[in-house]
Amino acid sequence: MNREKIQFYALYLTRFAGGYGFITLITLLSEYIDALDPTSVSVFGLFTVGAGFIVGMYTAGFTGAQTVAVVPLAWAGDRFDKGDVLVGVLALGTVAYALFVPVDSSLGFIAVRALQGVAVTGAGLMSLALVGELSAVGSRANNIGKANASAFAASILGSLLAGALYDAFGFTPIFAIIVVIMAIATVTCWLFLDDDDTRVPGFPFTDLALNRRILTIATFRAQYAVAVTLVRTWVPIYAGVSAATGGLAYASLAVSFTVVAEKFTNMLFQPRTGTLSDRYGRALFVFVGGGAYGLVALAVPFSPAIGAALDLPGAFPILGPLSPAFLPLVGLSGLLGVADSFREPASMALFADEGTDSGGVASSFGIRELLWRPGSVVGPLLGGWLMYEVGMEWVFFVGGGTALTGVLTFLAVLVYDFGPGALTEW
């Protein structure tokens, strides 16, 4: 095996480790909501913070920390050795996951989620920047698709183990496994990644922020962040929280299946859709994938009605009694994964293309992250409010609608700036 392949495999392992830890927290979020029992809190007697806001902060604390960390980490990746930065953030992630074990309050959980957010952002930026930098243009989206497929494989394994282990043993063994995987990824990257000799002086964010293609896709990505953050976070919440708060009250293992369905289809399709994007361009895949995601998201709240109309079973071996909504919810989650598999490698490859051409691939991915952050911070706060004050179904209506407005805005700007054939020419 040549040295280049060994480096790709080390980076794929990094994506696996990051995906495993990330999805575990998503899968167990409904358990943390029930275990920590967030309630309204008075702040210095001046105003009251509601339970919906605190639930939103369980995710917004994570995404807020990611927002703050993007620029310094991306700048460090372009200015110094990306491999060294990657090893550092992987070590930080190892510590963060160990700290989840003693958490016993909402404030503590939010704080550790913030530390996790910094580690996840750094590992994602550096691993994708290195994959993009090591890849030729004609294989870039395919290699990115493989890297993402590694993360999705971990997501499948992590969500299934998280549900099963939590039901049997509680939180501690789950995080012990994550710490071991993160430590192995840290040591592997330290041993096998070659020195990164690319050095970009100055502040490459400035030029890349004015890149015409990046500005065009920004019109889509800023809106789509709200859609994905809402839908991806609230599918397992919808499946797991009590009926009193609008959920289906499934046990952890059943919740895991709703998460696994989306990750499995995404993993299955991404390498192939990445290859097609290398061959036929990026914009069309972003448009089709984003639009399909919005349409499927709108259907999620109708899972009980679909199950009842089709007279689907409400009990399953091992999982026990659930409801007729279970199979439709799992199926719709799988379709969300198919839709996103068209968008994600094409979008990542576009930013890698522009960053490599301009000499700042880490900063290009940093801009991609920054475009995502406002929506990913506002999204969960909005979702928490909608869940408690309006109704669970409105989380998905708003999420799906935002994806659709995002792709329509993208199409309009694309055609205006690059002409009517740009959708198939990028």
From TrEMBL:
The keyword Transmembrane applies. The chain crosses the membrane at residues 12-33, 45-73, 85-103, 115-137, 149-166, 172-193, 214-231, 237-261, 282-302, 314-338, 394-416. Keywords: Membrane, Transmembrane, Transmembrane helix. The keyword Cell wall biogenesis/degradation does not apply. SUPFAM superfamilies: MFS general substrate transporter. PROSITE patterns: MFS. InterPro entries: MFS, MFS_dom, MFS_trans_sf. Residues 7-418 form the Major facilitator superfamily (MFS) profile domain. This is MFS transporter. It comes from Halogeometricum luteum.
